[in-house]
């Protein structure tokens, strides 16, 4: 049997923007059907709720702090290999169509096809803009264009991505392949034609108590982020607006475009694995916040994830993570999973949803974007999420702990609650262990020095280990500093060089 995978991705789609996730007001019939044919993950998390860093984890299998893309507009390291490069080097054809956001350029990319992907189908947003006249470029960046009489489906980026994806599926239907289709929609300016441009006029999300979260027990950054919303009523925050209506209309338009690709998959590659996800969500007023930033609230970090290719019509409640997608793709293709990757293959779980892959998953943040002076600037965050609890450490601010079973709206911050000290400290240890295990560039004793962790004494040496990089598929084995010879163990206890001298 041919081995074919299609990964479909949208930008800024919350879980509750899909009907299959329990919101019947959302018009997403194509993704709802995919969910019925596959597995819907309820507790899947992005590795960082910002476009570029989130994508870096999806397509490399390493966290942003490892691959170097810790913020938008900063490229990954030159020695970082994407899943496309790894698959191409093993004879599997790879196509990437759509938003990339991994080359360190501006929002649109630099138009250059990276190593490992088919040049004939490469189509980042810069290539889309280069097809347009100057006047059309201006129109493509204005939400108001959606309401002009001459606005058509064919003008949108989503339409042009779908068309190329359909062509790819037809051309390579008899081969093993991996195809990524990455829509910018419904991200602003949320261009979409009628009837999508007005179909959500007057819409409000279901009421939630977190619209009235006063953020008084939350990090200062969140209160600064909320700004004027701190003084608004829940009706003012979650109210009908043209911007929300267009955003949700564009979300349904993206589903329509995805539907065309899914129909082609059913025709040409009916046995293919199909993965759908979004890079992150949007606060949309919950907790009085908008857009995304250094937060791990479910609205922005708990993303939709649907996988068709194993059991059908199942729901997985166990924690899941974008970090596991690249290992899963390699495993499905019958390739070994490199030591360097920081996730696990989900393939056993896809074949049997009773299998647990993760006891907890991790999310991080460094800053929103290098090009922006605002949006909070440097915001160092590390978070761990288990079945029930969520611990969020803000290195330069106060911290958060939520009992998601008792407090699904994530309002009551339990970080100073003695009744939760045991679970809090256990999760804190897991974050510190994860930072060491993944060679987190920003790890250090400062993460252990929290006002609520009185039993944790900081030490200069942290856990006292040297942890060298293992990437021997593409690099020579690294050398031991003390011997100059190839290292025998990547992780080993350090010996004080001062004592040796």
UniProtKB/TrEMBL annotation:
The keyword Ubl conjugation does not apply. This is Putative sulfatase. GO terms for molecular function: metal ion binding; sulfuric ester hydrolase activity. The keyword Hydrolase applies. It comes from Hungatella effluvii. Belongs to the sulfatase family. Signal peptide: none annotated. Residues 4-334 form the Sulfatase N-terminal domain. Gene3D superfamilies: Alkaline Phosphatase, subunit A (3.40.720.10). It holds the Pfam family Sulfatase. Keywords: Hydrolase, Metal-binding. One of its GO terms (cellular component) is cytoplasm. It comes from the Bacteria.
């Amino acid at each position: 049997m041919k081995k074919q995978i299609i990964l479909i991705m949208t930008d800024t789609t919350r879980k509750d923007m899909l009907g299959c996730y329990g919101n019947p007001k959302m018009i997403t019939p194509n993704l709802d059907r995919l969910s019925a044919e596959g597995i819907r993950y309820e507790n899947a998390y992005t590795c960082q709720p910002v476009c570029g860093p989130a994508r870096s984890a999806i397509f490399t299998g390493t966290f942003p702090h490892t691959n170097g893309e810790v913020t938008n507009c900063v490229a990954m390291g030159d020695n970082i290999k994407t899943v496309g490069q790894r698959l191409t080097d093993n004879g599997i054809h790879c196509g990437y169509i759509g938003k990339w956001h991994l080359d360190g350029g501006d929002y649109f990319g630099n138009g250059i096809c990276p190593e490992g992907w088919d040049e004939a189908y490469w189509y980042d947003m810069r290539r889309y803009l280069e097809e347009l006249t100057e006047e059309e470029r201006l129109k493509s960046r204005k939400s108001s264009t959606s309401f002009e009489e001459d606005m058509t489906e064919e003008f949108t980026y989503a339409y042009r991505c779908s068309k190329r994806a359909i062509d790819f599926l037809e051309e390579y239907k008899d081969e093993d392949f991996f195809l990524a289709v990455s829509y910018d929609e419904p991200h602003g300016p949320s261009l979409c034609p009628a009837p999508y441009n007005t179909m959500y006029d007057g819409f409000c999300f279901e009421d939630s108590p977190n619209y009235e979260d006063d953020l008084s027990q939350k990090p200062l950054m969140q209160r600064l982020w909320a700004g004027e919303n701190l003084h608004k009523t829940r009706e003012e925050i979650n109210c009908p607006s043209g911007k929300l209506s267009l955003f949700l209309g564009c979300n349904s338009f993206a589903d329509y475009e995805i539907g065309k690709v899914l129909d082609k998959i059913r025709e040409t590659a009916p046995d293919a694995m199909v993965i759908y996800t979004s890079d992150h969500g949007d606060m949309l007023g919950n907790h009085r916040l908008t857009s995304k930033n250094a937060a791990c609230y479910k609205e922005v970090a708990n993303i939709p994830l649907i996988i068709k290719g194993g059991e059908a019509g199942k729901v997985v409640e166990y924690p899941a993570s974008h970090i596991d997608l690249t290992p899963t793709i390699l495993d499905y293709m019958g390739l070994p999973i490199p030591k360097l990757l920081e996730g696990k293959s989900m393939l056993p779980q896809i074949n049997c949803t009773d299998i647990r892959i993760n006891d907890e998953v991790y999310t991080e943040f460094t800053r929103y974007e290098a090009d922006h002076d605002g949006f909070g600037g440097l915001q160092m965050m590390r978070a761990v999420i288990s079945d029930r609890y969520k611990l969020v450490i803000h290195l330069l601010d106060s911290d958060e702990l939520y009992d998601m079973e008792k407090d699904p709206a994530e309002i009551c911050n339990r970080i100073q609650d003695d009744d939760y000290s045991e679970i809090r400290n256990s999760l804190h240890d897991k974050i510190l262990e994860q930072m060491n295990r993944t060679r987190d560039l920003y790890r250090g004793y400062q993460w252990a020095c929290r006002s609520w962790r009185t039993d944790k004494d900081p030490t200069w040496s942290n856990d006292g280990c040297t942890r060298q990089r293992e990437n021997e598929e593409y690099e020579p084995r690294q050398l031991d500093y003390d011997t100059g010879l190839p290292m025998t163990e990547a992780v080993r206890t350090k010996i004080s060089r001062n004592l040796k001298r």
